[in-house]
Hints:
By secondary structure, this protein is of the alpha+beta class.
Amino acid sequence: MTAVATALAVGIDSRVTIPNVSMVFVVPVVMAAIGLGLGPSLCSAVLGALAYNFFLTEPRYTLIVDDPANVWAIGLLFVVGLIVSGVAFTSHRRAAEAALLRRQVALLQDYGREVAAPDNIKAIVLTTSRALAALFGVPVAVILVSDGKVVSVERVGGAGPQEAEIEAALSSLATGSFVRAGVYPAVASRFDFWPVATTGQAPSAAIGLLFDPEERPLAPSTPIEIVARLLSLALDRQHLLVGHSA
């Protein structure tokens, strides 16, 4: 994109005299920030300043600058590129975050309706696993526990919990707190676990998600805790219904 902007600026400069031809180099910075991210945008800002210096300031085809006014022009172009890059990238990130939030809200609303429909615990847990996999796009395991023992494991996404993950899930339930993968006491666990406490004799559960360490969401707990509360209510409700029917 910077090469295209350079060719365009050189072509314009060879035909007409435009004092602000350097602003052509701001366009690739904005496009890179929106489409590719902050790093490519900053790279475009640097390349634009160098291209302007090399092709459009005297003496041409060198990085030497004779006129002090051109030094200021190159420096200003670079600073403008940095500012525009930061603003465009921040705006794009906020728009992406807003879109993700809308998608998560819609998925949580659907889950709230779907989790109330099944008439057995296995279907409730499977619905929960699928909803979490749709929310985050990672392997999910929901471990059902009764009287301190694992009753069932519903998983979506291929990867299932191993012995270390089962121990981490039980630890999360015992302490009633979030347990992060790779951190004591879950050093060997690949899954993060969130506890799902229930009342009375209803089975409790642990929600496990296998995040890629390089692409871990900044704040996954908020939607997961909403799912955990809905799952807790669904498990309590199902236990009461089974008790009444018995």
